[in-house]
Design goal:
about 45% helix, four-stranded antiparallel beta sheet, alpha/beta, four-stranded mixed beta sheet, about 950 residues
Length: about 950
């Protein structure tokens, strides 16, 4: 039968053509299992083939021992070629839409990308299977600073500066670079299995998105929410641009705390205040000296003037403010509002002037007097030398600094007053706060609501201009000969700007555009709706998919990106851009450390995929808790690779035990079994009823967890059921059905159960592990569609609690027997006798599964007896209590050679006693107890205690064995 439209019809293959055509075929191996002196045989061996895709996309477990990771790209390309990533409206329902946080076009895949791609793809695949028209919007960000820096470095290697080329030619070079290298991150994201609609992929400098950016700027300006002004910003001296808070990374570094005398004007030589500062070169920008109002050391100086060192007598007021920390340094604070964010806020509050002493390249300006023109760090060194010469240097001491560095360039960031464009945020923030308050927006985990509210309640105006060439040029034109801060034109393009200028200033006027570009985050804030067609709100995508359903991203950009998208979405569309925000944590190494090249603990996702497979990586990442950081280790990846192999081997077993493809009557029998009604469920034998009931419970639990975005719970629930219940118990139990040739109907039921449970597990697991599940799904006969677009399992199916309880008793009995075998080191192939003692109702259902019990416990089937009281040789048997009302007696002679075991244990007991006596002697020695370290003495006591316990256990075992010998004699 065909696996999907366009695939080949069933055919038989000769062995010589099998590998050439890559079929899904079943082996001819004969199987049997011995029970004492008789055998169960499998039905007659068979050789057959099921349909395979003509292009050999899929491989059956019958052909390879394990899942081949190299097939992942083939499977992915097949999904995409079939159009499965596009939203399908045939099933109706409201759409599920999620926007990908656009990675930087300069980027290469890291574990943060792997995390968000995994979680978003899980959401998308789940909702697609639920029948919703599902759209995952992909794209990349132009990454203004990062991209310009990459291209500038490339040009520098050729001895070229961007200023040599000019703006237009430099931009052309950047576009050339983007066309050549910009697709790297996209292709790497595809390797993770991202089922995005790539036909809708966007780039933040695309024509459509660029139009949205300009429109947004104009609308905000028309409302008076965009203004130009000189304010303190994060300044990158090397990049020569303002940068956002997110692009500043703080690191703990060794530094120096400099103590400097500030003489009090009009006082004696003993009247001075000592200031402790980490940046003495900024003292030229001091506008005040502040102390705490209750600091008695300096109260007499409040209201007087201090002389700023090395300024030839410039005076600044000595003021008091409660925010001064009396315990830091000397308790005296120099206020340099042009070079410190806290000082800037204090100066604005107190009405103090702003004094800038630094040029944009990090050199000091003319305000610094003789130090003007020196680099900031060079000036620091020379200034301290001069302070020492003049007696104004008190001391310097080592001090750990929290240094702000550029995320891109790595240089130290300077707080610097600069003329920039800003967005007034308060009125936008009010609407975004109300959206959460009214329940229009849900943030998960809920605790991040407090952070969201705190940020928006204390929001500052947003600096949106950057002194770069690569990006969205600010749509502002200035008038030649006029003050650019007072006279400018905002327009959509140069032609419109010139027309407006002519209307206002006459035909002879000349204009020029603002050289700056907009902050990359400005375009990113428009991402959810600009990618869907805004400002053309009549576009089909906008009408169908906006607002989007879900945003998933890292909690570290809750404010920088998420909150701004909410604000912009409400402002420009009247709607919150998405209804849910799901936040994930950071990926850390196995020791909980942040991954960094410096520590050498970075784990490359592509290397991980090569070694462990995409499915194992995805499953590992998805097991984390929402919002919590995840420690990633090789051990976890190895365990989940083993899970992939377990799935593969289970698929092999299922396929090998299904009817032959040409056995129509057998297949009719298999497909006639239904498990969606309670009546049909109750007709099943105990193991079958148990596993189907557990599956139905699993479907409900997993579906509920998916709906609540509890992905860690989803993964653990499926893992536990598949490995512990299905693979370890039911697959093993089902062998008893296949190895009994006399009961074909039971084999048919077992085949139906295996197929039913396995295909539902594949469906539940597909969002997590898409590649191996699709490969296995395509190998199963009777597949009419791809797993990626198959229907989600039905919920609220019947389950039987009584059968579950009964089988748990059965499991307890089996475990007890297995443990006894292990305790007495019984060879695996040896079959032993057993007497099962239980009440009539328990005996009834346990005895009916006698073959299964014998198979799983390695019992001699002909010597398994059931009774309501202990057997006559109970004194010579190992007594096991499995559960209340269910016991077993295993003849000791079946388990062990009693005489040999007595001899072995006696020798072992003698050796253990000798070792114990040595430990006791050490503990009884006063010299040892008094002189040895406490932990050593404690260790010896612990060893003695363990040895004593082992001795007592061995004595009890010997006593039991000797009594058994006496009874037998």
């Amino acid at each position: 039968m065909a696996l999907q439209a366009g695939l080949s019809t069933p055919f038989l293959l000769s062995s010589c053509s099998a590998h050439r055509l890559n079929p899904l075929f079943f082996s001819q191996r004969r199987r049997c299992i011995a029970f004492s002196n008789w055998r169960f045989h499998r039905p007659k061996p068979r050789f057959f083939a099921v349909a395979a895709s003509e292009n050999g996309v899929f491989t059956s477990p019958e052909i390879t021992k394990s899942f081949d990771f190299s097939s992942e790209e083939r499977i992915y390309n097949w999904w995409e070629s079939q159009g499965y990533f596009k939203p399908n409206f045939e099933r109706g329902s409201d759409p599920f839409v999620i926007t990908m946080p656009p990675p930087n076009v300069t980027g290469s895949l890291h574990m943060g990308h792997a995390m968000f791609v995994t979680l978003e793809d899980i959401m998308v695949r789940y909702n697609r299977m639920k029948g919703k028209p599902t759209l995952w919007l992909p794209g990349t960000d132009h990454a203004g600073i990062a991209t310009q820096l990459v291209v500038e470095r490339m040009l520098a290697s050729e001895g070229i500066k961007r200023t040599d080329l000019g703006r237009e030619e430099f931009i052309n070079r950047v576009w050339e670079w983007k066309e050549k290298y910009g697709g790297t991150i996209t292709n790497q994201i595809k390797r993770l299995g991202a089922s995005c609609d790539w036909t809708r992929e966007h780039f933040t400098l695309d024509e459509q998105l660029s139009r949205a950016v300009i429109e947004a700027f104009i609308k905000l300006h028309e409302k008076g929410l965009i203004y130009q002004g000189s304010y303190l910003v994060n300044w990158s001296p090397n990049l020569q641009t303002a940068v956002s808070d997110l692009e500043v990374e703080y690191s703990e570094e060794p530094g120096t705390l400099y103590h400097i005398k500030y003489r009090v004007a009009g006082g004696s030589r003993t009247d001075f205040l000592t200031v402790a500062t980490t940046r003495p070169e900024t003292l030229f920008g001091d506008v005040a000296i502040a102390v705490h109002p209750k600091d008695e050391r300096y109260s007499q100086y409040i209201g007087r003037m201090a002389i700023v060192p090395m300024t030839y007598g410039r005076f600044v007021p000595i003021i008091s403010d409660k925010h001064v920390d009396k315990d830091f340094g000397t308790g005296v604070l120099k206020i340099s509002p042009g070079h410190d964010h806290n000082d800037y806020l204090l100066a604005r509050k107190l009405g103090l002037p702003i004094l800038n002493v630094m040029n944009k390249d990090g050199t000091l300006n003319e305000v610094a007097g003789l130090y003007g023109g020196l680099d900031r760090f060079e000036a620091r060194k020379k200034l301290w030398e001069d302070l020492e010469e003049t007696g104004l240097a008190v001391k310097k001491e080592p001090h750990t600094l929290r240094v702000p560095r550029s995320q891109r360039g790595g240089e130290v960031i300077e707080p610097l007053v600069s003329k920039q464009w800003f967005v007034t945020m308060e009125p936008l923030a009010e609407k975004a706060l109300r959206a959460v308050e009214k329940g229009e927006l849900t943030i998960m985990p809920e605790r991040f609501e407090k952070i969201y509210n705190h940020w928006l309640t204390n929001i500052k105006d947003w600096c949106i201009s950057r002194q770069l060439w690569w990006g969205h040029r600010i749509p502002v034109w200035y008038i030649d000969g006029k003050n650019c801060e007072e006279e400018y034109i905002v327009a959509r393009n140069a032609d419109e700007a010139l027309e407006k200028a002519h209307e206002k200033y006459g035909k002879d006027v000349k204009i020029y555009q603002d050289p700056d570009v907009l902050d990359t985050w400005f375009s990113s804030a428009l991402w959810p709706f600009s990618t869907l067609g805004w400002p053309d709100v009549s576009s089909e995508d906008f009408k169908k998919f906006y607002p989007t359903t879900m945003l998933e991203t890292g909690h570290d950009i809750l404010f920088f990106w998420v909150a701004r998208m909410v604000m912009m979405g409400i402002e420009f569309t009247g709607n919150v851009p998405f209804s849910n925000v799901y936040l994930h944590g950071l990926i850390r190494d196995s020791e909980g450390r942040k991954m960094s090249k410096t520590l050498g603990n970075v784990i490359d996702p592509l290397d991980t995929i090569k070694d462990f497979g995409t499915d194992a990586l995805r499953f590992t990442l998805a097991l984390g808790t929402a919002g919590q950081d995840l420690n990633l280790s090789t051990e976890r990846l190895t365990a989940n690779k083993a899970f992939t192999n377990k799935l593969w081997n289970a698929g092999k077993f299922v396929l090998q035990n299904l009817p032959g493809q040409t056995d129509i009557s057998a297949w009719e029998a298999v497909l006639s079994h239904k498990f969606d009604e309670e009546e049909s469920l109750l007709k099943l034998r105990l193991p079958e009823c148990w596993v189907v009931s557990k599956l139905h419970m699993l479907i409900d639990m997993v579906t509920k967890s998916y709906d609540k975005y509890y992905f860690g719970d989803v993964g653990r629930e499926i893992y536990d059921f598949f490995w512990s219940d299905f693979a370890d118990w039911y697959i093993e139990a089902s062998k008893a059905r296949f190895y009994n040739p006399g009961v074909n109907s039971e084999a048919s039921v077992a085949q139906a159960i295996l197929l039913y449970v396995f295909e539902n597990v594949l469906k539940l697991l597909h969002p997590f592990m898409p590649f191996v599940t699709e490969e296995l799904w395509q190998a199963l006969p009777q597949r009419k569609e791809a797993l990626i677009v198959s229907s989600w399992p039905q919920i609220s199916l019947p389950r039987n609690a009584n059968s579950i309880k009964k089988f748990e008793n059965f499991q307890a009995l089996t475990r007890a027997i297995r443990n006894a075998r292990a305790e007495y080191s019984v060879e695996p192939a040896k079959r032993i006798s057993a007497s099962i003692v239980a009440s009539d109702d328990v005996t009834q259902y346990i005895s009916r599964e006698k073959e299964v019990l014998a198979l799983l416990s390695r019992l001699d089937l002909e010597n398994v007896h059931f009774a309501d009281s202990p057997p006559g040789d109970a004194n010579q048997s190992v007594h096991l209590v499995a559960s209340e009302g269910l016991e077993a007696y295993l003849p000791l002679a079946d388990l062990v050679d009693i005489s040999a075991e007595i001899d072995r244990l006696s020798k072992r007991l003698s050796k253990m006693q000798t070792e114990y006596d040595v430990l006791v002697a050490r503990l009884n020695s006063p010299k040892f107890v008094e002189r040895a370290p406490e932990d050593v003495v404690s260790g010896v006591r612990e060893k003695a205690k363990e040895a004593e316990e082992k001795i007592n256990l061995t004595k009890k075992r010997l006593e039991f064995l000797r009594s058994s010998v006496l009874v037998s004699q």
